[in-house]
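Notebook entry, cofactor series.
This is the third protein in the set we're modelling with a bound small molecule. For this one the ligand is zinc ion. I'm keeping the input format identical across the series so the outputs can be compared line by line later. Sequence and SMILES below, as received.
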Amino acid sequence: MRPLGWNNHAGYAQKKLGEMLLDASLIDESQLKTALTKQQRSSKKLGEILVNLGYTNEELVLNLLGKQLDSPYIKIDDAEQIDNTIIHRIPENLAERNLVLPVKVEDDTLWVAMSDPANQFLKKVLALLTGYNIKSYIASPKELKQAIARYYSREGRFEKTAENVPLHSYFLPLKQLGFTPRQLPVFEKYLELQKGCLLIIGPEDSGKKTTVYGSLRQLNFPDNDIVSIERKMDYKLECVNQLEISGTSDQDMKRMIDSVNQFNPNILAVENIQGVESWNGLGRMAEKGNLVIGTINTDQNIVDFLTAFQDKRTTHYSVIENLTLVAEQKLVRAVCPYCQTPYKITGKTARKMGLKVKGAMANIYKGKGCSICNHTGYYGNTACYELLPINNAIKDMMMQNASKAKMKKAIRKEITCSFNDVLQEKLLKGQVSAEDYLQVMSKNLNQFKELKTVMVMDTFWSLFERSGSINAYLEYRRKN
Ligand SMILES: [Zn+2]
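Returned structure with ligand:
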């Protein structure tokens, strides 16, 4: 796989480099001639050849090239420790393949160290990817290689704890996390109340912590005192007092919450709440008028979670009383935005898939595969949410131990965009693939149940790609 921007961008600068070294009397004409002759038989750059011949040194060459390319020379080994939040702006594979390292952020500009600052294409990709303006330093390829290995392999261990979460998403603002335009203001409204219990539930590694970090980032005002109790502290957040819990038991968590309670922060986040004692601790914090954001690892959906909670209504009274919002979160692979390709399907087929589309035709999307997504067609994940604002009617039902059916009906009415709605929206916007949409929705789409197995999905995609239509697949199913 070729790195981005394989054209010889640096040709102009290379030619100038010889002249510049000559002008500065750093080499003489015969040395330049020898180097240029050698270069004709080599794929190496002029600067590298001059350095290898011992006529000059790398630092001098990089300094001059840097001036030429408006990219100051940076010696990475001497640079300050680069912050994790900065490193995550650029994905590892991109950094490695193109020898580029993010160094610092200044307002809306990201400074990157590059081996080839003349590569405008790479700069454009970085700008698109990060949302920043890009300014560059020139740096030694060898130092870049070493630094990339050092910074990203040190981060490697986090990849394990949050397997499906793209690393750079940890510090994303809420608006970039995957809430739909209808959901975001609802979530923000309850967050900004700055009181009560806001719970985020979902399976392990569904990106709940990312949502919490995004929330804390949004609440990060000077007069807010924020504490985050974490099972494992993966990242250092500015302006948040993070505490890592040492044990795993309910008592360990309770002790931590009690000690935090003593210095009374007005915002507390707690990762993966499990036992009654912890819930009581949270209830006490919320009763004092503070905001408590809790995450819970569970495979239950909102209805099952709340009916299980209802069973514990006597012990969980103070939490139920202060509940403001429950968010359920799932991660779905995101279609790579750099190779996203539309496919036309008939409106009839779309409706058969459960999509609420009106026209005769509809577009759905697939990532074709490109160098940015390692030819997978997917780039990171998108979080999908169901939001349930808790009103008094729901609280009363929980306290009066209403039937599950009654609860379900009341909850379904209050949810802001169901997963169904969210996935539809994301499918039609090209953020999730039909493959994943059908997989998540298969419960409601009996005719697509078979698509669950990878083998069938492959058949589906090859037929789909050849014909551009799901009808071909349906035809295939009818015959087989
Ligand atoms: Zn791609």
